Amino acid sequence: MSWHKMNNIELNGYHYNAVVNACATIGKCVEWRRALQFCCEMTHSDVEMDTVTFNSGITACQNGFQWTKALQLLMVAAQRKVEASTITYSTAMSACKNSGLWKMQLLLLAVMMQHQVQDDTVALSTAISAYEKACEWKQALHLASAMQRGHV
Q1: 139: nearest Cα among 111, 98, 105
Q2: How far apart are CA 37 and CA 5, in angstroms?
Q3: How far apart are CA 74 and CA 112, in angstroms?
Q4: 32: number of CA atoms within 13 Å, CB side?
Q5: For residues 73-89, b (16+ Cβ closer than 10 Å) or e, as one string?
Q6: More confident residue, 64 or 151
């Protein structure tokens, strides 16, 4: 049983998000399990998970080199109809990058664009890196020049 339940303390979404975010940013590789534990706890309570929850959870997975868990959280967000943000996709792409999964990075970029989520430098730089790993230098150059022109 969690400490807050033993002490009859009711947590709301802000509390959970703060704890998940702290787990994502403190202790790096060690605390991803705790972040996921709190995310799981939220799914079994009446506390609503939001974009911040998923971003923090995916960040914890990225820092813990847990790309599969990061993608699972992304899927749970979609199932719960929580809108994924640029940060959500960029962080999931980075989690895949950390594990050398360049195909998954490009797939996530395609999904991000399909859902018309605004891209950013992090997402596009991660995609360029993926094209590099795939020896698709023409695609990398095309994306880089489109970034310079402001077309992406």
Answers
A1: 105
A2: 14
A3: 11
A4: 18
A5: bbebbeeeebebbbbbb
A6: 64
> d(Cα 15, Cα 151) in Å, to the nearest integer?
39
pTM score: 0.79
The whole-number pLDDT of residue 124 equals 77
Locus of tokens 């989690």: 95
119 close to 146: Cβ distance less than 8 angstroms: no
List pLDDT tens digits, range 38-61.
Answer: 888 887 777 788 899 899 999 888
Place of tokens 């991660």: 126
How long is the chain?
152
CA distance to 9, 84, 140, 142, per residue, from 88 (Å): 30, 6, 22, 24
